[in-house]
């Protein structure tokens, strides 16, 4: 007899698969664009967006999108798990193996700490009944570090110049 899964388990599997497909196709689109294959890049980007739509639908069906306060609490939990529990052993193993993954694992480990702190700041604002004061939000395209307000000279996680940051 086949292993019968609940709809909730199926939703979690589908959300994970669609989320990974989104990221994969977005990365494939960048590569195709770099290779000068504009229409193939466009196809990858469009399919990535379709996968994102599927993932968001599954997330909604799981009732995992709550109030902004609840979403911030969930985000803080996720980011904290990543920098406290998930990434440290991954980073240590990659260093032990001298694997190229150690670079991004290290970046992610440090950037996730910042993400959690930023969400904590946003949660405090929500609890005061307001939005964040900062209008300018910057993203390091190399490591995922986020800066609010005034742009730093260079990324404190990976060291790239702030001129490469993306303003959101």
Give the overall pLDDT as a whole number. 96
Quaternary = single chain
End-to-end distance:
51 Å
Radius of gyration: 19 Å
Please provide a written account of the structure.
There is one protein chain. With 168 residues, the chain is mainly alpha-helical. 64% of the residues lie in helices and 5% in strands. It contains 4 helices and 3 strands; from the N terminus they run ααααβββ. The chain has helices at 7-34, 38-61, 68-96, 101-127, and strands spanning 137-139, 146-148, 166-167. A 3-stranded antiparallel β-sheet has the order 2-1-3. Helix 1 (7-34) packs antiparallel against helix 2 (38-61) and helix 3 (68-96) packs antiparallel against helix 4.
In short:
This protein has about 170 residues and is mainly α.
Write the layout of secondary structure elements.
Blueprint (H helix, E strand, L loop, with lengths): L6 H28 L3 H24 L6 H29 L4 H27 L9 E3 L6 E3 L17 E2 L1
Helix pairs in contact: 1-2, 3-4
């Amino acid at each position: 007899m086949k292993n019968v899964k609940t709809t909730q388990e199926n939703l979690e599997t589908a959300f994970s698969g669609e989320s990974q497909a989104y990221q994969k196709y977005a990365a494939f689109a960048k590569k195709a664009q770099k290779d000068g294959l504009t229409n193939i890049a466009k196809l990858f980007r469009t399919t990535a967006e379709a996968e994102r739509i599927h993932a968001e639908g599954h997330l909604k069906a799981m009732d995992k999108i709550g109030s902004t306060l609840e979403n911030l609490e969930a985000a803080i939990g996720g980011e904290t798990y990543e920098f406290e529990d998930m990434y440290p052993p991954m980073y240590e193993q990659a260093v032990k193996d001298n694997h190229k993954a150690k670079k991004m694992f290290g970046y992610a480990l440090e950037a996730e700490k910042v993400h959690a702190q930023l969400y904590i700041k946003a949660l405090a604002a929500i609890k005061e009944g307001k939005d964040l004061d900062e209008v300018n939000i910057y993203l390091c395209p190399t490591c995922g570090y986020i800066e609010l307000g005034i742009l730093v000279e260079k990324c404190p996680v990976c060291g790239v110049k702030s001129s490469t940051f993306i303003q959101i």
